[in-house]
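Sequence, C-alpha cells passed on for absentees:
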Amino acid sequence: MLELDLWLNGYLDNAYKDATEKDQHDFQTLLEYPDQDLFDWLMGNTQPTDKNLLHIIECIRSSTRQPDNEASCRLG
C-alpha cells in the first residue's frame, strides 16, 4: 500500500533514530499488524485495541506532516 509506505518511511527517515526506546519498540510492534489495520489507524478511521500504540501512531502522523517537528514524539 503506497500511502502506508509513505507514512512509515517518513517516520523512519525523520524520527525513528531520535525516538525513545519505547517508541522504537512500539513502532516495531505496529509493523506486526495487517496493512489495512495500520492504514485505518493512521487515517484516523479506527483506533487500535492496544492503546499503547496511540502515541506512536500520532508520532508517525506528525513526523510525516512536519518532518522537523518530531521532538514532541521523543517524550514517549
Observations:
- Helices lie at 2-14, 21-30, 35-43, 54-65.
- Residues 11 and 57 are 10 Å apart (CA to CA).
- The mean pLDDT is 88.
